[in-house]
Amino acid sequence: MNPRIAVVIVYTAAMCMNGLDSTIVNPALLTIARDFGEPVSAANTVEVAFLVALAVALPVAGWLGDRFGTKRVFLGALAVFTAASAACGLSQGLTALVLARVVQGVAGGLLTPVGMTLLFRAFPPHERMKLSKVLIVPTALMPALGPPLGGFLTEHFSWHWLFFVNVPIGAAAVLLGVVGLREEKADVGGGFDLRGFLLATPALGLLTYALGFGPAHGWTSPSVVVAGPLGLVLLVAGCVHLLRAKNPLLELRLLADKVFASATVLALVTSAGLMGVLFAFPLLYQAALGASALDAGLSVFPEALGLMLASQVADRLMPKLGPRLLAVPALLLATGVFAALAVPGAAESAWAVRGLMFCVGLVLGTAVLTVQIAGFADVPPPAMGGAMALFTIVRTLGGALGIAATAAVIAASGGAHGQDTDPGPYRAAILVTAGLVALGVFAALRMPKEAPAPPPFDDEPREEEAVAA
Other C-beta atoms within 10 Å of 309: how many? Predict the structure, then answer.
């Protein structure tokens, strides 16, 4: 098989599994708690454990891929993720389930940056816009499918099947990857940055823990009060070390590149805005219409359909308009659509909700895909692993920050965590997400005017083309 086809298939399968697992468990938490005789607050640890473990694994992903090979690390993480999925499904107690989710999260944290590195190394910059059709499936459609699919499997089969569905897909992807993927390594230029690892890893874990538990358990709870500030201190100390180190675990100096830095900043604010609105709007929908939790969850699904269309739009318009001219108007439109969701009367109309959520996916997805592809155009292949790890870390923290910020605004405005019938606090939170998206305009203005150009000539055929011949 052509290695480029193989990497697309294996990457898509793995990321679909990872994307589903980030949201599919939420509807089943009450059932899991009842089955194990535990309170719902304890069952929520199943989800937070996955997110914290994922964040902890991100800093080391780039180094592992460069040191041991992207194929070996990616397929190893995929095999562990698949085995951990089976262990989750077979769990007979909450402790066993949480431990299996931790293993799943660690493997998932390696999958995303190493998989993106495989993908971007296989395709030169001028061909990467074609990848938007691939990137959008696991990043948009699968997380949106998670809650409805999780509810269906839990109601008609068992919550154990939330995890068993991964096993045949993961096993097939591993086998295909072993046969079809090519191994690539990069010169890491030195030993393992132990100090950077000891600073960055707990920093991300503590911050994710605080952002995950803060909205539900209160920002003044002892564990959050300790984890949040300590995580910030370790993060600052880690950044200072990484900027000074000769061979850092994370290459922060890549942010000196204006285009890559702009793409990374945009990933932070747009991820915060999108995850924030996907958290706050279902609460507003319930407060305004008295809708059920399932109806509220389904109300945001058109956003995924808009993102799917955005992959087609960006692919066609990017070569003609260039990154800046495509991203800036899209972000301005996205800001207006986000703000429209908070207008009194919008949430009361089901069709207005569906139309606005579709527009959220379309315009914001166009901007994000455009900047993400353009942001890595000038990153050399040897630095791709580190750049992808850094980009993924920032995007992950941005999403957690967006949820935490909207939850804090809702609480400060008098909301009662989704139980208050006054829609005012939720509208205020949605306006905050509009402001976050608006900040992305300043980053997009630093993007280049022209799309990545193909090389002037290519006399030497690619290895896979020579093999095929």
Answer: 15
Q: What DSSP designation does 451 have? A: P
Tell me if 280 sits within 8 A of 410, measured CB to CB.
Answer: yes
- Is 39 buried (19+), middle (13-18) or exposed (0-12) by CB count in 10 A? exposed
Burial of 36 (0-12, 13-18, 19+ CB in 10 A): middle
**The pair of three-digit structure tokens given for residue 298, joined into one six-digit string:** 């389904």
- The Cα 26–Cα 44 span in angstroms is 8
Tokens of 12: 């898509």
Query: Alpha-carbon distance 271 to 43, whole Å?
Result: 26
Longest dimension (CA), the chain: 68
Q: Which amino acid is at 155?
A: E
CA distances from 429 to 67, 138, 389 (A): 43, 27, 30
Dihedral angle sign, alpha carbons of residues 384, 386, 391, 396: positive
Which pair of tokens denotes residue 79? Answer: 């095999």
Phi/psi of residue 379, nearest 5 degrees: -80, 120
One pLDDT digit (tens) per residue for the chain, 469 residues: 677 888 888 888 888 887 777 777 766 767 787 788 876 556 667 777 787 788 788 888 888 888 888 888 999 999 999 999 999 989 888 888 889 988 998 898 888 888 888 887 777 776 766 676 666 666 666 766 776 777 778 778 888 888 898 899 999 999 988 888 877 766 656 677 888 888 888 888 888 788 777 766 667 788 888 888 998 998 899 889 888 888 787 788 888 888 888 888 888 888 888 888 877 787 777 666 676 656 766 777 788 788 778 877 777 787 788 888 888 898 999 999 999 988 887 777 778 888 888 888 888 888 887 877 777 777 777 777 778 778 888 888 888 788 778 877 877 766 544 445 677 788 888 899 999 999 988 888 888 777 655 544 444 444 444 344 3
What token pair was written down for 100? 């299996």
Indicate the residue type of 397.
L
What is residue 189's DSSP assignment?
-
Cα–Cα distance for residue pair 326/306, rounded to 1 Å: 16
Q: Which of 422, 427, 429, 426 is nearest to 406 (CA)?
A: 429
- Map residue 246 onto helix, strand or coil: coil
Whether 26 contacts 403, CB under 8 Å = no
